[in-house]
Amino acid sequence: MLTESSAAVVTATLPAVQAHGEAITRRFYQRMFDAHPELLDLFNRGNQATGAQQAALAAAVVAYAEHLTGAGTVPWGPILDRIAHKHASLGITPAQYTIVGRHLLAAVGEVLGEAVTPAVATAWDEVYWLLACELIAREARLYAAAGLAEGEPVWRDWQVTARRQETVDVVSFTLVPVDGGPVPAFVPGQYTSVAVDLDGGRGQQIRQYSLSGRPGADHWRITVKRVRGTGGAPDGMVSTHLHEHVAVGDTLRLSPPFGEVDAVAGDGPLLLVSAGIGLTPAMAALEHLAATAPQRPVVLVHADRAGATHAHRDDLPRLHAALPQLRTALWYEDATDANLAGLTAEVAGGLVDPELIPLSPEAHVHLCGPLPFMNVVRGGLLRRGVPAERIAYEVFGPGMLRDDRG
Ligand SMILES: Cc1cc2nc3c(=O)[nH]c(=O)nc-3n(C[C@H](O)[C@H](O)[C@H](O)COP(=O)(O)OP(=O)(O)OC[C@H]3O[C@@H](n4cnc5c(N)ncnc54)[C@H](O)[C@@H]3O)c2cc1C
Ligand code: HEM
């Protein structure tokens, strides 16, 4: 709880902080990286360049301040959970909150100038530390649940035992722990953070990849789409590295599984909706159900550019055989080359029409794909009466969907 005097100050200054949120977080990162260049290896440089991380941090701080002052319109719990899982997968430590707090509050002062009186500075310091304490506590529980002792690094070496080219731009890697120890269990929908040393002495970068294989198997699988730069933007750093430089026998540093999204929630009908590389959590869900609940009714809706770009399509006939109540509906922008090769599926041309998605009234839904795709599908499903709490979704980048961000 905020003290009464700080609550009044935060309410009065929230509009200014919100209006300048991204200017504040931009300045914050510049200051922090100047003082701590070693943190450049921890943060995603692509998200810094596009401004996505600055926007996500500003939105989270504003949502928390609204939550504290009672002005919030979106539930805070899911936002906290998402950040804590991401932080835990990166091995964020309590001591680092002091560094972030110092530079974030200094950036507020720099951007808002004289408006930041001592009372305003005190009030926002209080907001920051209430938020930091919530995150530190949640992250401590996540580390403990992952079997990590206090302060133990999250990173473990895994060896690539197989590499499969799924499509021209998508490759999957099968991995086993180098130490020969157990392969951690995970829930379909969870991801691992992968740390790589970029070539040419460009330092380390970390990215998240959803686990796309069967939970409980003696190995993990990740499936990576090569991100190509468009309109003058550079090619993706880590996906290009994985495609070009990582072969069978190589090792990668991986975190334990984290992620708050359960792709197989409930035990009734399940609707999995994915687009492009967003199919990776759905693949883990199907593999899991094939092994543990083969009679569960499942609808898989997948959108892709064409049959040739649809990764893991070759796995679907096997999954259909194992899951008699699986129904697959594919939307290919170019459906001329659908070539289903033994797969039982309905195929439509063009973009997914949410009105036409086969929907059981009590279905739990899992969505994953580009943001515009998820906004359209989620909006359509809400209009068709699916309650928001039954629609789980995964964003392959920082932040949450428009309506949930605050
Ligand atoms: C929870 C989660 C799960 C995920 N699961 C998967 C998965 O299963 N499979 C998968 O393939 N991906 C997945 N991702 C995405 C993955 O983590 C990476 O974001 C993706 O591989 C791109 O990383 P990259 O390093 O190749 O690209 P980056 O180098 O991070 O670049 C990303 C984008 O930013 C642009 N960019 C970079 N620098 C600049 C600049 N200076 N100016 C302008 N634009 C710039 C690039 O052109 C590119 O479009 C997941 C992400 C999350 C958060
Ligand atoms: C109260 C303090 C903090 C808040 C509100 C906060 C907020 C956030 C948010 C909103 C995200 C994006 C989550 C998502 O993927 O949706 C994020 C990611 C991240 N945070 Fe924090 N964070 C805080 C403290 C810290 C600290 C102390 C560190 C360590 C130096 C840190 C490092 C990171 C990193 C490395 C990422 C991933 C960045 C990326 O992928 O671009 N954060 N944080």
TrEMBL record:
Q: Please tell me whether the keyword Flavoprotein is annotated for this protein.
A: yes
Q: Give any single GO term for biological process.
A: nitric oxide catabolic process
Question: What CDD domains does the entry give?
Answer: flavohem_like_fad_nad_binding
Q: Which organism is it from?
A: Micromonospora nigra
EC number(s) stated in the UniProt entry for this protein: 1.14.12.17
Occurrences of domain Globin (ranges): 1-140
- Return the similarity comment: In the C-terminal section; belongs to the flavoprotein pyridine nucleotide cytochrome reductase family.
Q: Name the Gene Ontology molecular function terms of this record.
A: FAD binding; heme binding; metal ion binding; nitric oxide dioxygenase NAD(P)H activity; oxygen binding; oxygen carrier activity
Name the cofactor(s) required for activity, per the record: heme b; FAD
* UniProt KW keywords: Dioxygenase, FAD, Flavoprotein, Heme, Iron, Metal-binding, NAD, NADP, Oxidoreductase, Oxygen transport, Transport
- Identify the Pfam families for this entry: Globin, NAD_binding_1
Entry keyword Oxidoreductase? yes
* Reaction catalysis annotation: 2 nitric oxide + NADH + 2 O2 = 2 nitrate + NAD(+) + H(+); 2 nitric oxide + NADPH + 2 O2 = 2 nitrate + NADP(+) + H(+)
**Residue ranges of domain FAD-binding FR-type in the record:** 153-264
Which protein is depicted?
Flavohemoprotein
